[in-house]
Amino acid sequence: MAKISELLPRSAIVLDLQSKEKFDVISELVRPLVAAGAITGESEFVSAIVRRENMESTGIGVGVAIPHARTKAVSSIVLAFGRSDSGVDFNSLDGKPSHLIFLIAAPEEQKTEYIMTLARLSKLLRKDEVRIGLNKAGSPDDVLRVITQHES
């Protein structure tokens, strides 16, 4: 099973999200994955993630959201990370805006890996020191270093 740090391409780390709305942020995080060839059908994937968001919020609280979807438009499981200084409303459980947004894109058939990745990412982001490190990270390398240090 791949580590979180191995699933997150440097090119898909956006430290200054420009978008303010949830679905615009999702599109902003999908773009580098499309550019990298990890997502083959952008509109199909965005539709899947929008459907998922409309069913249940992926804002897990403590300033974190993990939008995610499985679809045939994805060749292998991949992540994108974005940081928003102003915060984005993901209808989080605690009612607070999300500043750290991890997007998970997975192929339809990789259900187990997808669930395990979501679980491992959630566990990682529950650690205060991880969130603090990600909020302070000055570069994509810093982001990867924080994740690598804390994932088991």
Characterize this entry briefly.
The protein is built from 6 helices and 6 strands; from the N terminus they run αβααβββββααα. Strands 1, 2, 3, 4, 5 and 6 form a 6-stranded mixed sheet that branches.
List the helices and strands and how they pair.
Elements lengths: L3 H4 L5 E2 L7 H14 L6 H14 L3 E3 L2 E2 L2 E4 L6 E11 L9 E10 L3 H15 L2 H9 L3 H11 L2
Parallel strand pairs: 1-5, 3-6, 4-6
Antiparallel strand pairs: 2-3, 5-6
Question: What does this protein look like?
Answer:
The protein is α/β, with parallel strands linked by helices and 152 residues long. It has helices spanning 4-7, 22-35, 42-55, 111-125, 128-136, 140-150, and strands at residues 13-14, 59-61, 64-65, 68-71, 78-88, 98-107. Strands 1, 2, 3, 4, 5 and 6 form a six-stranded mixed beta sheet that branches. Helix 2 runs antiparallel to helix 3 (42-55). The longest helix is centred in the last third of the chain and has 15 residues, at 111-125.
Task: Please supply descriptive tags for the structure shown above.
152 residues, alpha/beta, Mannitol-specific EII, Chain A, six-stranded mixed β-sheet, 21% strand
Report how far apart the termini are. Answer: 12 Å
H/E element sequence: HEHHEEEEEHHH
What gyration radius follows from the Cα positions, in whole Å?
14 Å
The CATH superfamily name is Mannitol-specific EII, Chain A
Number of domains: 1
Q: Which structural class matches the secondary elements? A: alpha/beta
Q: Mind telling me which CATH architecture this is?
A: 3-Layer(aba) Sandwich
Main sheet makeup? 6 strands, mixed
Oligomer classification: single chain
Shape: globular
Beta-sheet strand percentage?
A: 15-25%
Under CATH at level 1, the class stands as Alpha Beta
Helix count from the secondary structure assignment: 6
Helix percent reads 40-55%
User: Any low-confidence stretches, pLDDT <50, length ≥5?
Assistant: none
Number of strands: 6
CATH T-level fold name: Mannitol-specific EII, Chain A
Mean pLDDT figure: 95
